[in-house]
């Protein structure tokens, strides 16, 4: 796109092209049908992405529920074997997010930053597990496994810090509903919460409270 555009349109005009800019570039080269072609391709691409992400969002809670790690309600299927409850809930959440974008232009940026911070925690725990697994299997472990685990752990810790500790605190708010779900699933599977579970619950709740306080006092700006 960059090379093609600079070969047919002046640089000061490229910066003023409206989206999708490739449509206007192709129109400049071959005529109006080029713009139509790109726009049709864009529509097909967006519809495909929308369908794919809709199915993916519903598939995740459905699979986890079938494995007994999420409420069984999410594992319900309709007559066409589609995860109906999972699709309904995930799509409701998506619609709420889209509606929020009507009230502020920063909603997407905030959600993007929060999601980026949230996903770093599982990455960090995965790196820690590599170290733990290596320690537990010293007889089978080699130097490569040690190096990968240690470097990955250090790097992911730095990523969490670089992403912003304020966003990390706000991320704890996302985990609180997860605590309720976890407690419900454990009870549904006839399992009791352990002392470690309660310790982690308290730790997450305390961090969430700190995040709320900093948000209320203006120390954290989300928009």
TrEMBL record:
<feature type="transmembrane region" description="Helical">
    <location>
        <begin position="110"/>
        <end position="131"/>
    </location>
</feature>
<keyword id="KW-1133">Transmembrane helix</keyword>
<feature type="transmembrane region" description="Helical">
    <location>
        <begin position="197"/>
        <end position="217"/>
    </location>
</feature>
<feature type="transmembrane region" description="Helical">
    <location>
        <begin position="84"/>
        <end position="104"/>
    </location>
</feature>
<keyword id="KW-0472">Membrane</keyword>
<feature type="transmembrane region" description="Helical">
    <location>
        <begin position="167"/>
        <end position="185"/>
    </location>
</feature>
<protein>
    <recommendedName>
        <fullName>Arginine/ornithine antiporter</fullName>
    </recommendedName>
</protein>
<feature type="transmembrane region" description="Helical">
    <location>
        <begin position="40"/>
        <end position="64"/>
    </location>
</feature>
<dbReference type="InterPro" id="IPR050367">
    <property type="entry name" value="APC_superfamily"/>
</dbReference>
<dbReference type="Pfam" id="PF13520">
    <property type="entry name" value="AA_permease_2"/>
</dbReference>
<dbReference type="InterPro" id="IPR002293">
    <property type="entry name" value="AA/rel_permease1"/>
</dbReference>
<keyword id="KW-1003">Cell membrane</keyword>
<dbReference type="GO" id="GO:0005886">
    <property type="term" value="C:plasma membrane"/>
</dbReference>
<feature type="transmembrane region" description="Helical">
    <location>
        <begin position="143"/>
        <end position="161"/>
    </location>
</feature>
<dbReference type="GO" id="GO:0022857">
    <property type="term" value="F:transmembrane transporter activity"/>
</dbReference>
<keyword id="KW-0812">Transmembrane</keyword>
């Amino acid at each position: 796109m960059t090379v093609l555009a600079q070969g047919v349109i002046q640089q000061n005009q490229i910066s003023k092209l409206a989206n999708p800019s490739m449509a206007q570039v192709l129109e400049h080269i071959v005529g109006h049908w080029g713009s139509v072609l790109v726009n049709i391709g864009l529509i097909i691409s967006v519809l495909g992405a929308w369908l794919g992400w809709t199915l993916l969002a519903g598939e995740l809670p459905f699979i986890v529920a079938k494995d007994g790690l999420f409420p069984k309600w999410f594992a319900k299927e309709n007559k066409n074997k589609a995860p109906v409850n999972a699709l309904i809930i995930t799509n409701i959440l998506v619609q709420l997010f889209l509606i929020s974008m009507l009230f502020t232009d920063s909603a997407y940026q905030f959600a993007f930053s929060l999601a980026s911070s949230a996903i770093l925690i599982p990455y960090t725990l995965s790196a820690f597990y590599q170290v733990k697994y290596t320690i537990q299997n010293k007889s089978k472990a080699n130097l490569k496994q040690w190096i990968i685990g240690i470097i990955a752990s250090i790097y992911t810790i730095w990523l969490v810090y670089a992403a912003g500790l304020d966003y990390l605190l706000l991320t704890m708010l996302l985990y609180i509903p997860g605590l309720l779900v976890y407690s419900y699933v454990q009870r549904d599977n006839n399992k009791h919460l352990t002392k470690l579970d309660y310790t982690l619950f308290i730790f997450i709740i305390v961090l969430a409270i700190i995040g709320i306080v900093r948000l209320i006092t203006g120390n954290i700006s989300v928009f």
